[in-house]
Amino acid sequence: KSAGLSDINFTVYCGTLAHTPKLGVLEVIPNAVVGVDQDGIIVFITPNAADDPLKAVSAYDPTLSLTQVDVINTDLQNESCFWFPGFFDTHIHAPQFSNNGIFGNSTLLDWLEKYTFPLESSFKDLSIAKEHYERVIDRTLSNGTTCASYYATIHPLASKLLAEIALKKGQRAFIGKVCMDKNSPDHYIETADECKQATLDVIDHIEKIDPEMELIAPIITPRFAGSCTSELLKWLGDLRESKNYHCQTHINETQVEIEWILKQFPDYNTYTDIYNDHNLLSNKTILGHGIHFTEYEKDLISKIGCGVAHCPTSNSSITSGEARIRWLLDAGINVGLGTDCSGGFTPSILEVSKHALLVSRHLVMGSKNEKEKLTVNECLYLATMGGANVCKLQDKAGSFEIGKKWECQLIDLDVQGSALDIFDYQRPNWKENDYVEAKSKFQNLIDKWVFNGDDRNVRKVYTNGRCVVNKEY
Ligand code: GUN
Ligand code: FE
């Protein structure tokens, strides 16, 4: 059985919970006891009960045999340890992982030709796919990414393998076989017919290996309008609609790209109209980048309910632009974060959160509009709940709520050798009767974590109530 589907006992988790259930709001529940049932679902959250966790269990269900309850304690003496929801990476190219950091001075279209297509093409070889896909899932899980929306390559066998590896390692994942039947090199292109066949084949396989869609789901993935014919886009759009599948693609990433695309689709005035007219947009569609939307496009995607994957690391690295996230959020659009490896150089959503914050400040330096600034808590919301909304998993994960899955990471800011220094005076004391002061100290620790933390601070990771990463130091 996969790590994320193994049998578990009723379990209680003790310690401080922190999450961002609403945009900009950090909620802290000190010394909580959380009950998680055999399906991995949170059934109770009791604050200030960690001194006697079994008492909280009895209060929940007096008939539960306490000998069958597992108790997981964080180190309660350590006020810099807390549970945080797992991160959502709403846009990541699994096969590009080995190119992280390698992009020189390129911009999107030459970057694709020079770095990306040659690497992706090599995934025809399943042994290459296996090595790379094992590593990308290990690495993202280790960074606290409990759910990722992956672009694979055009190859059906390698795409199926990615699904199997995510399932085996227990990561929640959307798996997209990439579709591309034009403007691609001879060694890395498919015909529309090959693409249709392969797309159905991969979806079928995913539905077989995880029939209840406990962890893995297919996602329709036209790479972008620049690499798909109108015929293929329309077929994919109709397939999307037939079973209300998730869908992901790139949109409005660079000005040069937009001009190039609009030349290929002369009947359309905007990039969004192309996708909309090919039936690719729904509230289960994730639009990657979305930097250069017009007012009209922003209103259209808001009306349809598409999510946007904000990829500030990639957008800065390959000089694509600065997405106006406040403007999208104000229009009621769901926004999550994406590493976009390897347009982006890091597999860490924590690091991308920091870049989202910095890019928002760069926007302010141009616009002088302070409202565009994103706060630490807003960026953490995008990394968790925002991503859950984009993936339509808001009832399953993204925050700690009764009825949701226990899907989180145990953060330890005091790990020896990590990049964080916590001084004793900075530690919150929840036991003293000054909640306001403790909360303010805790917020400072959260800020330090976002700016100076990394995967060394991730001690354990859970998906679907199962432990999928456990680091012993
Ligand atoms: N547009 C089309 N393909 C890609 C890709 O692989 N990465 C990014 N960032 N943009 C794209
Ligand atoms: Fe991308």
TrEMBL record:
Reaction catalyzed? guanine + H2O + H(+) = xanthine + NH4(+)
* Gene Ontology molecular function, alphabetical: guanine deaminase activity; zinc ion binding
Q: Keywords of this protein's UniProt record, alphabetized?
A: Hydrolase, Metal-binding, Zinc
Pathway stated in the Swiss-Prot or TrEMBL entry:
Purine metabolism; guanine degradation; xanthine from guanine: step 1/1
Cofactor dependence is on: Zn(2+)
Enzyme class, broadest EC rank: hydrolase
Q: Which Pfam families match?
A: Amidohydro_1
**An example Gene Ontology biological process:** guanine catabolic process
* Chain's role: Catalyzes the hydrolytic deamination of guanine, producing xanthine and ammonia.
Q: Which family does it belong to?
A: Belongs to the metallo-dependent hydrolases superfamily. ATZ/TRZ family.
- What is this protein identified as? Probable guanine deaminase
Q: Which organism is it from?
A: Pachysolen tannophilus NRRL Y-2460
